[in-house]
Specification:
The complex is a heterodimer. Chain A is α/β, with parallel strands linked by helices. Helix content of chain A is 39%, strand content 19%. Chain B is an alpha/beta fold. Chain B has one domain: 3-Layer(aba) Sandwich (Rossmann fold). The longest helix of chain B is centred in the N-terminal third of the chain and has 16 residues. Chain B is globular. The chains are: A alpha/beta, B alpha/beta. The interface between A and B is large, with 71 and 59 residues.
Chain lengths: 618, 346
């Protein structure tokens, strides 16, 4: 059943139980230590076998501003953000009024008992929690008291919902890496709070959890860690980066995992990581390393991408492999630095000046971040060009359930690189000559000991032999070859994932973190409204030719994305062109929050109704 | 390096100097940059370096065009305006066996690239960083650069009201351990500085005053040939000695200072007068530069030397094989390691 369709009801214990399908929102202050409490809750539920997703809605601030954490439980396995929650835990007086209104009708309002609020909603169950009293009693260290207060709501929820105390304890062990002291002190508060709830609260709500087996074999991870692991297994040898939310945790994960996975038997590293002075220098270093033959990468977000524009164009035209992760956040300008968007699509695709376009990979979840983490290097070296991976804050920083990552089965593709022996055999070498007809030339690496090896790399006009040239024919010929290379890219980048449903007249096209909302909306449309839909998820730019056939097979195709200018929709219009263009419908939304199935569903229903009325009036 | 004397006109690799030439220069006839290109050829040829082991890097500007005009068998990369340091940092980290020769100008280094310049020095990337300093933008036809003297007048640009940035001073404050100034009109001095710089373990900055004959060669310009020839105040005499070579110094009066570089080669410096500058004294070097700038003095020589700082690649604790040439077997961790990781995340 759809959880959002709850009736307005009086709270009573008589209502049928709501098991494993509801959402919890915890409202706290940034820097109060609530992240530990929330991830421990999330992990305990996950280990009870219940499908969960955790999303952190946090401010651009170190301490004091409001922050919200949402945990969605879904027995059906849906993971998109829910617009409202059945259970709200209010720990922040500054937002309590708003948080109170956020509770779904029939839901639960759990609040720190020192919050003064007019509790006038008759459709909710209200539970005051003596967070301060319990934390003061058990935590003697005043500095740790706010952390302890968060464990109070964990304990109360454990009692009210039936969350296993054993799983909470092992989640604490996981979080604190089995350090006994913090595990014991936090567990003491959780137990005391659960006992307090048992003695003092009368349960009037229908929500509870039960063990299931739907998370067996799954892992819990964020996309940035997944991306870093992908890069490590993809053999990155060089990374340069500059701190920026929400990309920092990708470089942090590289720094955390590379030492143990990529240190040789002699104790020496097979990689170098440099924190650059800015994003411009970060990509400059990556271009230098890629030119010299390394698998080089950087990670950034929108503002950093702007600084990288100059080197992106250079890399494209000088044909230097590089991998650039863009963990997208909300622009324009500084925008909402801690909120999600898919707003960099057009900018990154055309980044540079002059006629410039780039290969972009579009992961939708952590497993794909891992896969593209290594694949991006293969593509960059095969195509001798910068490859961008467009992830976003939701994928990158939030906790996702995922199947374990698959080990890369194919050997690394180091592309067309000539060594001294091959140069001897060939007897000649022209850096930018299209020998194979795929637009991809051969390259040599600095240090190759052969008199023919060296060439001069430049962003200025050049001929096949890499010589400086201002000749119009050289320019035209080179750009035509780059065009052929881009067509080669179109065929070898990850192809779309297509679900063609028989009898479906309408379809979705989407990408990246919009995927869970689209999948859930399709389920709702089919089960609640009897509308079948097909779905094509784009995984890379340039756009695959097969997308044209997909569009041709449907009357209307909704392009769902998280930005204000319908950026992928614009690219798709150019791509399908002609008569197919009119079948595309922009379905874009951007408010800084991850997309919800509710928005997608109602958008399509309204649009379809308008279509029907238009048809009817003809 | 073999000790046997090479045949006449051949270096230790048995190659004639002509093999080290580049393409014909397209810079103006008489440009100081051309004579520096020639001295790079001389230095690399005389040291007997394999050209394939040398990478040439530059930014944008007249100076930055010049890497095409020397060492034709070396890999070259003409990067973006002011961004050569970052590219050099990446390339020379992933392949530590390469010699880096960067050529930049006063606009490229002193204005648009000042940030990258200083951060590269802070990291101590092992390379020779040559600034062909003429105080003027040539390719865009004669604007003042950030190293132009205050009060200077140029035909199109008018009068410069701003004080100059002293790039040697900037280098020292960024902890660069090899800082020298020279004059393109003094080939002997330039060549021995380049040789020593190529053997230094970090970034060696050579600020070479290199007159622009088209836009800034008026006799009253401190960046002109006339000024260089009439005002050059040498602070020390400089010789570079390869590890196995004997030190032969002209028998002239003066105190000598010997600095050993990490590969065993040595720099021998001789003070030219009593109480002259000690280039191992950082504060003295800064004072010297500051005073010279205030008095518009043209001092040349090795201004500061410090051989203690490790290079960036040394600090990174890297495997012996250049990162750029590591095979898959060293780059992709085992299947078991991934399974173990995944198990821990369940």
């Amino acid at each position: 059943m759809a959880v959002s369709d709850l009736q307005v009801v009086q709270p009573t214990a008589e209502r049928p139980p709501m098991v494993n399908t509801f959402a919890i929102m915890v409202a706290t202050k940034n820097g109060s230590g609530s992240q530990t409490a929330n991830t421990v809750l999330l992990r305990a539920l996950f280990k009870m076998g219940i499908p969960v997703s955790g999303k952190n809605l946090f401010p651009s601030n170190i301490q004091g501003l409001p922050t919200w954490y949402t945990i969605r439980l879904s027995a059906d396995g849906f993971t998109a953000r829910r617009p409202r929650s059945e259970i709200v835990v209010a720990m922040n007086p500054a937002t309590a009024i708003e948080d109170y209104q956020h509770v779904e009708s029939g839901g639960v309002f759990l609040y720190a008992d020192d919050i003064k609020l007019d509790l006038n909603r008759k459709d909710l169950s209200h539970y005051p929690v003596p967070a301060k009293a319990i934390s003061t009693k058990y935590e003697k260290d005043a500095r740790l008291r706010s952390y302890a207060a968060n464990m109070v709501y964990v304990g109360v929820l454990a009692h009210l919902l039936g969350i296993s105390l054993e799983e909470l304890e092992s989640a604490l062990n996981f979080h604190f890496k089995h350090k006994p002291k913090p595990v014991q002190s936090n567990m003491q508060i959780i137990r005391a709070s659960a006992e307090w709830a048992a003695q003092n609260l009368t349960k009037t709500d229908p929500f509870r959890v039960e063990r299931m087996n739907k998370t067996d074999g799954l892992i819990m991870i964020d996309g940035n860690t997944a991306a870093a692991l992908g890069a490590i297994y993809g053999g990155f040898t060089f990374a340069a980066w500059y701190p920026i939310t929400p990309a920092t945790s990708l470089a942090d994960a590289l720094t955390a995992y590379a030492p143990r996975l990529r240190t040789g038997p002699d104790g020496k590293a097979t990689y170098a990581i440099i924190q650059a002075e800015d994003e411009l220098a970060a990509l400059g270093m990556v271009i230098g390393a890629g030119w010299a033959g390394a698998r080089a990468m950087t990670s950034t977000s929108g503002p950093g991408i702007s600084l990288m524009a100059e080197f992106a164009g250079f890399g494209y035209y000088a044909e230097i492999p590089a991998v650039i992760w863009d963990i997208q956040r909300m622009g324009p300008s500084t925008g909402l630095p801690t909120r999600v968007s898919q707003g960099d699509v057009l900018k990154v695709y055309y980044l540079g000046h002059g006629d410039c376009k780039h290969v972009c990979l579009l992961p939708a979840h952590p497993a794909e971040c891992f896969e593209f983490g290594w694949k991006a290097f293969d593509l960059a070296e095969r195509l001798q060009t910068p490859v961008f991976v467009l992830s976003d804050l939701d994928i990158g920083m939030n906790q996702w359930m995922s199947p374990p990552f698959e080990y890369p089965e194919q050997p690394m593709d180091r592309g067309k690189v000539l060594d001294a022996k091959q140069l001897d055999e060939l007897g000649s070498f022209a850096r930018y000559k299209d020998v194979d007809g795929d637009g991809i030339p051969y390259r040599t690496l600095p240090g190759t000991p052969h008199p023919l090896a060296a060439y001069f790399t430049r962003g200025t006009g050049h001929n096949e032999k890499a010589g400086y040239s201002e000749r119009p024919d050289d320019w035209v010929k080179n750009m035509a070859r780059l065009g052929r290379k881009f067509e080669t890219a179109r065929k070898i980048v990850p192809q779309p994932v297509v679900q063609e449903v028989e009898g479906a007249r309408i379809a979705f096209i989407s990408y990246g973190s919009a995927d869970p909302a689209v999948e859930e909306a399709r389920w709702r449309l089919e089960h609640h409204h009897q509308i079948k839909t097909s779905y094509l998820r784009i995984r890379a730019l340039p756009l695959a030719d097969s997308i044209k056939d997909f569009v041709a097979a449907h009357d209307r195709v909704y392009v769902v994305e998280l930005n204000t200018d319908a950026q992928m929709y614009q690219l798709l219009r150019l791509h399908v062109g002609g008569e197919l263009e009119v079948r595309l419908r922009a379905a874009n939304w951007s408010d800084g929050l991850p997309l919800t199935a509710r928005w997608v569903t109602s958008h399509v229903l309204q649009a379809e109704q308008a279509e029907a009325e238009k048809e009817g009036s003809k | 390096m073999t000790a046997a004397a090479p045949a006449k006109n051949l270096n230790s690799l048995g190659l004639p100097k002509a093999e080290y030439k580049g393409l014909p220069s397209t810079l103006c006839a008489g440009c100081g940059h051309n004579s520096i290109s020639d001295k790079i050829i001389d230095a690399v040829w005389e040291l007997g370096l394999r050209q394939e082991q040398v990478i040439k890097l530059s930014g944008i500007g007249c100076s930055s065009k010049s890497p095409a005009y020397f060492l034709g068998r070396s890999f070259g990369i003409n990067t973006l305006h002011g961004r050569m340091p970052s590219v050099a940092t990446g390339a020379l980290t992933v392949n530590r066996t390469l010699y880096g020769i960067g050529v930049s100008g006063d606009g490229d280094t002193g204005s648009i690239g000042l940030g990258q310049f200083k951060h590269m020095l802070r990291r101590n990337v092992r390379m020779v960083y040559i600034i062909e300093n003429n105080g003027v933008y040539g390719l865009t036809k004669g604007q003042f650069s950030a190293t132009a003297d205050i009060g200077q007048e140029l035909k199109h640009a008018g009068r410069n009201e701003l004080p100059p940035i002293d790039l040697c001073l900037e280098a020292i404050t960024a902890e660069c351990g090899f800082v020298a100034r020279s004059f393109a009109g003094d080939p002997k001095h330039v060549i021995s500085l380049i040789k020593a710089a190529l053997n230094y373990r970090g970034t060696a900055v050579l600020d070479i005053i290199s007159p622009c004959v088209t836009f800034n060669d008026r006799d009253d310009s401190t960046k002109s040939y006339y000024w260089g020839k009439t005002h050059d105040e040498r602070i020390n005499d400089f010789s570079f000695v390869m590890p196995q070579e004997e030190i032969v110094i002209d028998q002239v009066e003066g105190e000598t200072l010997e600095v050993e570089l990490h590969d065993g080669s040595r720099i021998v410096l001789r003070k030219l007068a009593e109480g002259q500058h000690d280039p191992t004294d950082k504060y003295a070097a800064m004072r010297l530069l500051q005073e010279a700038r205030d008095k518009q003095q043209f001092i040349t020589g090795l201004i500061y030397i410090n051989t203690e700082r490790p290079s960036l690649a040394e600090l990174a604790n890297l495997v012996d094989t250049p990162l750029a040439f590591l095979p898959q077997s060293q780059l992709r961790p085992s299947r078991e390691s991934l399974e173990k990781l995944m198990e821990a995340m369940k």
